[in-house]
Design brief:
The complex is a heterodimer of chains A (about 120) and B (about 110). Chain A is mainly β and about 120 residues long. In chain A, the strands form 2 sheets. In chain A, strands 2, 4, 5, 9, 10 and 11 form a 6-stranded mixed sheet that branches. Chain A has a 5-stranded antiparallel sheet with strand order 1-3-8-7-6, with no helix packed on it. In chain A, strand 7 and strand 8 form a beta hairpin. The radius of gyration of chain A is 14 Å and the shape is globular. Chain B contains no helices and 11 strands. Classes of the chains: A mainly beta (about 120), B mainly beta (about 110). The interface between A and B is medium-sized, with 27 and 24 residues.
């Protein structure tokens, strides 16, 4: 099955600096990669996603890049703010046995702390 | 994700007891999922359902059971066979199972007395 590795597990940055979180995946059939932000005790919220037919996607201060050849994708947050502090999860969608079935496999998360 | 609700917010289980976690969605989504979240472990898939009256085991189904009698409801039962049930349980739904974005409910925290 799919295996997703996420690094680093913790990340501290000064307010205004950039943060980068990296993920690798194992199943070359995976072709949908969402990123979720989870604040303490809350539900994961989708912040950005990318499909395999594009290499980069940007939404204001957040961007995601995908390298299908190397099987890795990254989340970039620019001009970080204290409210960006949270746990971020990457995921990869890979096919299951049977037509039309897919499963999201999650990385173990990165705890981002933005220091004012 | 405001259309997915879970109850209760906290649940306490006594040893040997089965407990049921509720998940309801009014988004008209076909697919629903249950995940378990432990500290430092990310989210792990317990069960998923692509359509009413059908469900499949995920990566960690042992000690859990589900039903999908209605499109909007996907309850999870934590049985006495689950020896380490303390965790944060998240329900999610997506329009279809085929690589669609999943939206999460607020979660239920299960604690063992």
């Amino acid at each position: 099955g799919e295996n997703v590795e996420q690094h680093p597990s913790t990340l501290s940055v000064q307010e205004g600096d950039s943060a980068v979180i990296k993920c690798t995946y194992s199943d070359s059939a995976s072709n949908y990669f969402p990123w979720y932000k989870q604040e303490l005790g809350k539900r994961p919220q989708l912040i950005i996603d990318i499909r395999s037919n594009v290499g980069e996607k940007k939404d204001q201060r957040i961007a995601v890049t995908l390298n299908k050849t190397a099987k890795h994708f990254s989340l970039h947050i620019t001009e970080t703010q204290p409210e960006d502090s949270a746990v971020y999860f990457c995921a990869a969608s890979s096919p299951l046995k049977g037509a039309g079935s897919y499963q999201l496999t999650f990385g173990k998360g990165t705890k981002l702390s933005v220091i004012p | 994700d405001g259309g997915i609700t879970q109850s209760p917010k906290y649940l306490f289980r006594k040893e040997g007891q089965n407990v049921t976690l509720s998940c309801e969605q009014n988004l008209n989504h076909d697919a629903m999922y249950w995940y378990r979240q432990d500290p430092g472990q990310g989210l792990r898939l317990i069960y998923y359902s692509q359509i009413v009256n059908d469900f499949q085991k995920g990566d960690i189904a042992e000690g859990y059971s589900v039903s999908r009698e209605k499109k909007e409801s996907f309850p999870l039962t934590v049985t006495s066979a689950q020896k380490n049930p303390t965790a944060f349980y998240l329900c999610a739904s997506s329009p279809r199972a085929a690589q669609e974005t999943q939206y999460f409910g607020p979660g239920t925290r299960l604690l063992v007395l």
